[in-house]
Specification:
Blueprint: E1 2-3, E2 7-13, E3 19-25, E4 34-36, E5 40-41, E6 49-53, E7 59-62, E8 75-80, E9 86-89, E10 95-96, E11 102-106, E12 112-118, E13 123-130
Parallel strand pairs: 4-6, 5-7, 6-8, 7-9, 10-13
Antiparallel strand pairs: 1-2, 2-3, 8-12, 9-11, 12-13
């Protein structure tokens, strides 16, 4: 299996014996969604999941820190459904994009954002977003 920025790929043989590439979309390959209504700290087992945030008050999501090479490429997709403000916070010793304390504060209803953990940089990198997100 090869690795790309957003896609992994594997080489496969077709029936006529020509080599083809089969792409695996990493950025959008997320598991069954679950909903948060209170502030929380995400854990490694949450990687690859779609997280719906539905709260009228302000809340925060803290991203895991102290990750190892095995978590490289792990993703979180966050969908904001409630009217409160959502703050995404980097865990101790880790970063979200270039920020160590907090980043990506939004009050935009139905905003979405997807992050990937890049172990070589010890940070969560934004892959894509929809809606209004501002850095703190």
């Amino acid at each position: 299996m090869g690795k790309g920025n957003i896609f992994d790929y594997t080489r496969v043989r077709s029936p006529d014996d020509t080599e083809q590439m089969e792409l695996i979309d990493k950025a959008f390959a997320v598991g069954k969604p679950y909903t948060l209504t209170t502030s929380t700290t995400l854990v490694i087992a949450d990687m690859g999941k779609r997280i719906r945030v539905n709260a009228t008050g302000n809340l925060a999501i803290t991203f895991p820190a102290s990750l190892v090479t095995a978590q490289d490429g792990g993703t979180f997709e966050i969908i904001k459904q409630g009217t409160g403000t959502l703050t995404n916070i980097a865990g101790s010793g880790c970063y979200i994009n270039s920020y160590s304390v907090a980043t990506d504060i939004t009050s935009s209803l139905y905003a979405t954002i997807t992050y990937e953990y890049v172990h070589g940089l010890t940070r969560w990198v934004e892959l894509c977003h929809e809606g209004t997100w501002a850095s703190a």
